[in-house]
Amino acid sequence: MTNPQWTEVDEYFTDTIAPADDALTAALADSTAAGLPEIAVAPNQGKLLQLLARMQGARNILEIGTLGGYSTIWLARALPADGRLVTLEYDPAHADVARANIARAGLDKIVEVRTGAALDSLPQLEAEGAGPFDLVFIDADKVNNPHYVTWALKLSRPGTVIIVDNVVRNGRIATPHPDDPAITGTRDMFDLVAREPRLDATAFQTVGTKGYDGLLLARVTD
Length: 222
Ligand code: SAM
Fold this sequence. Notes:
Layout: H1 4-17, H2 22-33, H3 43-55, E1 60-64, H4 70-76, E2 84-89, H5 92-104, E3 111-115, H6 118-127, E4 135-138, H7 145-154, E5 161-165, H8 181-195, E6 199-208, E7 211-220
Parallel strand pairs: 1-2, 1-4, 2-3, 4-5
Antiparallel strand pairs: 5-7, 6-7
């Protein structure tokens, strides 16, 4: 679902208070040129992620689902010079584009793009003692959303912020759709969050250049 007015308003917001710079613009252009799908967060959503990371005082960020590194760049810019961001990407071609985009943005010293299925990389991160992460952004294959939230919790501390993208599924999230694994996975994730006493959460719908969508935002309780 799209609406020209949503796009016009998003462009107004972005142009006035959340402009993308050359490195971000080039990251999107090179992602498109390399044939990656145009499913990165919108600029004002990238800025939201960056502000949340800054408000959180994040020093250690985990991202699940890199694509061309666009949201990665927004998030990594919230980190101090000695901060760290690990981003997990299944597709080696996406990871290569992301690494180049991240290097051009001057963030390759603090960002690691790890290639492979996230459900293989997450236990490795645990074994390496990579956590706890201060913020986890989940934006990969939606069928695995319950597993990703479970891993985010394992790699968290009290106060960790967990964000899950694309939870609206064009409004179909509100009823079961057994034929759609992305909806089933996302609904199972909502059930998990509802049952989990260590998570305090909300979710909200958004409209904009990316159409009709929404985010889940959770905090690990003290
Ligand atoms: N966060 C990115 C942004 O806003 O710029 C967009 C990420 S895109 C929506 C989802 C990415 O997750 C794709 O690049 C896809 O290849 C990756 N992905 C899909 N399944 C995955 C898996 N099992 N493990 C890791 N990454 C996966």
